[in-house]
Specification:
This protein is an alpha+beta fold. It has a single domain, classed as FAS1 domain (Roll). The protein is built from six helices and nine strands. A hairpin with a 2-residue loop joins β8 and β9. α1 runs antiparallel to α5. The radius of gyration is 19 Å and the shape is globular.
């Protein structure tokens, strides 16, 4: 038991250090080429950028969904709100930490319940996660209107204003653009893209890198701080 708990703590520390070294204050993810245009399928783009997408590819294959990303599936174009390796690692560590806490509380926990590699996550869980993040059409930042999503005064739910509703392969995504101010000029700065799982109390999430274009769709990459279980 001590060994499992120690390993989980070490994993959390390592993940924190990786996050510090590999991202800017905006959790920017390098698209790999100028303007983020890639003359290849989305799957081939992932293969060329394994620093961020290695675990993502494993999750996709484990879920049996590779055809959606390589262009051989039912959707000619998709938009993928991409989950990076670090986000997947954090999701696995949180799962293992919860098991550690159950052990400390005296509950019976089988060592096989721990997720030591991506393929330890049930395939059905991987499929469920990915379907929430895929919209079966090509969407660019310019296609997303201004909007907002703010909490009610009691903090129990969110109010969605303007923006747009995107039908994902599972459920709906609420997306909106929120421009920053620049040199005291309102809305003159960077255009920030946000998404949230529609009509629930999960958090708002900013897209870290927008408009990574491939021949089979667009990757709108989530930041390294994205929490899979909060979407």
């Amino acid at each position: 038991m001590v060994s499992k708990i120690t390993n989980t703590l070490i994993g959390i520390i390592c993940l924190f250090l990786i996050s510090l070294c590999s991202c800017t204050k905006y959790n920017y993810i390098d698209g790999g080429v100028a303007e983020g245009i890639h003359d290849c399928s989305m799957w081939e783009y992932f293969q060329r950028q394994t620093v961020d997408w290695d675990s993502t590819m494993i999750m996709i294959e484990h879920a049996g969904m590779k055809s959606i990303f390589d262009g051989s599936g039912p959707h000619e174009q998709i938009t993928f709100f991409g989950i990076t390796d670090i986000a997947i690692a954090r999701y696995m560590l949180k799962h293992n930490y919860a098991l550690d806490q159950n052990k400390l509380a005296g509950q019976a926990v089988d060592d096989e319940d721990y997720w030591n590699k991506v393929t330890d996550i049930p395939a059905s869980t991987c499929e469920s996660i990915l379907k929430k993040m895929i919209v079966p059409q090509r969407l660019m930042l310019k296609d997303i209107p201004l909007g907002s999503r703010t909490k009610t005064s009691d903090g129990r739910e969110y109010i969605e204003d303007k923006g747009t509703i995107l039908p994902a392969l599972s459920g709906q995504i609420f997306a909106w653009m929120d421009p920053e101010d620049y040199k005291e000029v309102e809305d003159a700065g960077a255009k920030r893209l946000f998404i949230a799982r529609r009509l629930n109390t999960s958090s708002n999430w900013r897209v870290a890198s927008t408009d990574i274009q491939t021949n089979t769709g667009v990757v709108q990459s989530m930041g390294y701080d994205f929490e899979i279980d909060n979407f």
